[in-house]
Write a structure and sequence with these properties.
Largest sheet: 2 strands, parallel
Radius of gyration: 11 Å
Oligomer: single chain
Number of helices: 2
Distance between the termini: 22 Å
Shape: flat
Strand content: 5-15%
């Protein structure tokens, strides 16, 4: 799995798994969001 970008809620980086994923996918843009139920960029993309 190789995503083009990663949408994340900032508090996830307080957890070990979040830190591991951020390190693993450091070469991919990380986009901070407020709520995973409402990702505006994905709603606009048909």
């Amino acid at each position: 799995m190789f995503p083009e970008k990663i949408f994340y809620e900032p508090p996830v980086l307080h957890y070990e798994l979040g830190k591991q994923l951020q390190e693993k996918f450091a070469h991919i843009p990380w986009i901070a969001i407020e709520n995973h139920n409402n990702i505006e960029e994905l709603r606009k993309n048909p």
